[in-house]
Amino acid sequence: MNISEFISQYKNHPVLFIGTGFSLRYLRNSYTWDGLLAKIAFDLKGNNEYYLDIKASSEENGKYKFEMISSKLEMEFNRQLQEERNGKFKDINDIFYENMAKGVNLSRFKIYISQIFSTLDFRPEKADELSELKKIRKNISSIITTNYDNLIEQTFEFNKLIGNDILLSNPYGSVYKIHGCRTLPGKLIITTEDYQIFFQKYELIRAQLLSLFIHNPIIFFGYSIGDENIKSILKTIFTYIEPNSEQAKKIRANFLLVEYDSGSMSNEIVEHDIDMEGFSTIRINKIRTDNFSAIYNSISSLQLPISAMDVRKVQAVVKEIYSGGNIAVKITEDLDLLGNAAKILAIGTDRTIKYDYLTSSETLANYFKLIDEANSQTVGLIDKYVIPKTQYFPIYGFNLINANLTSAAALKENQKIKIQGYLADVPAACQTLHATVQGILDDNSVPKSSKSRAIFWSIMNDKVSIEDTEKYLRDYNNKKNTEFKRMLSAYDFKKFSKE
């Protein structure tokens, strides 16, 4: 069975379980556990031998205990920095003492780890694949990761949960950082002592995760078949579920391990048996490949009745009902008669309830997110909008995502008319030769009130690049004003039209 056929069988939104290999694939400044500790030791001592010495002293039964190495390295790192207040690691000491003055005792070792992962240095050759990855957001329930960096949060824009925040959380649209996050160095789990505390509290977290594993497909990225994290999850599940039961078969059918195989373009799913001490052999599904785009495209193409983010919204309303919030029951035959309440949970048949996801203005405010995700279902709602001819509405990019838009032809014609009409009236003072948007913004000869007009003209006349324009528009503050919609229409036309 190929990957597309396998994922098309999913009846629910998958959960991603992401390990170090995932960050290594997309970031130049990512490390294995061994590599991270070796880097810190070298930065501290200026040679490789110190790390090799503590690594050699941390071997048990033929395996290196990296949590033990971490404990030894932390002790030496903290000791040396304490003795060298204004040395090479002065900035780390500054952060340490600033926090201690507030009564917060952080390990200098963990502060340094948080600094190592403070930026994301993306591999440029993976840019297209990352674009494919973003498209799966709409079909992902939640993400669990053992990574410290912020790659997942930046890519998926999911709510981040660390430590005990996991226990009382809404799983949909969340990333569970079970080993901590660089933003909270005090909660990083890396040393022997950290793991001891973690496992003491793990039972409650285990129960939360177990519910996810039982009810959702699980896809593992960034782990090898023998990884202890995978074995631990399988042990967690099959401790509570009879391995030969029908439920166990369904769970196994939902498990997929993606193993990296350099240069391979394989799309085939195979079965693999995992031997675990104290348990019977457990069979899971596996794909060995370097063709991650095929996996992402399969997930993105998954057609489910409701998006994962809509599930999260419904759960948020239900949670408010449970918690005794400001709830009122309304009986109506017409949704238009309801007030503009912040949240509405409608109960009825599909004949009596109609649901439109976004207004046309909200759609444009979410333009880049919809394009990134290639969210054809939401884009399809454009046909339900009444868009006046006086309004700027960029349609070319949306039409590429959903070719069945019946309103596309008329909207394209209106987009061209609006652009051409405005372009003809741009005064000479706004027709600058700057090669960047920032150059226009910094040009004092262009009045502040005319900046967007100058940017519009530069987009249409290829003075500023599409990439520079996109960055500016993604970060634009007021995405509901006419200036934004006008510039966005120009960007959309230049990038996606073939005219």
Describe the structure.
The chain is α/β, with parallel strands linked by helices and 499 residues long. The chain has 3 domains: 3-29 and 121-300, Rossmann fold (3-Layer(aba) Sandwich), CATH 3.40.50; 33-116, no CATH class; 360-496, no CATH class. Helix content is 47%, strand content 9%. The chain contains 23 helices and 10 strands. The strands form 2 sheets. It has an 8-stranded mixed β-sheet. A hairpin with a 7-residue loop joins strand 9 and strand 10 (282-289). It starts with a helix and ends with a helix. The model is unreliable at 332-336, 338-342 and 351-355 (pLDDT under 50).
Radius of gyration: 26 Å
The low-pLDDT segments are: 332-336, 338-342, 351-355
Gap from first CA to last CA: 42 Å
Q: Estimate what percentage of residues fall within beta strands.
A: 5-15%
- The domain tally reads 3
Strand-pairing-aware structural class: alpha/beta
Q: Into which percent range does the helicity of residues fall? A: 40-55%
Q: Largest beta sheet, briefly?
A: 8 strands, mixed
Count of β-strands: 10
Would you tell me which CATH topology of the largest domain applies? Rossmann fold
Mean pLDDT: 88
> How large is the count of helical segments?
23
Quick one: CATH class of the largest domain? Alpha Beta
Form type? globular
Strand order of the largest sheet: 5-6-4-1-7-8-10-9
- Tell me the CATH architecture of the largest domain: 3-Layer(aba) Sandwich
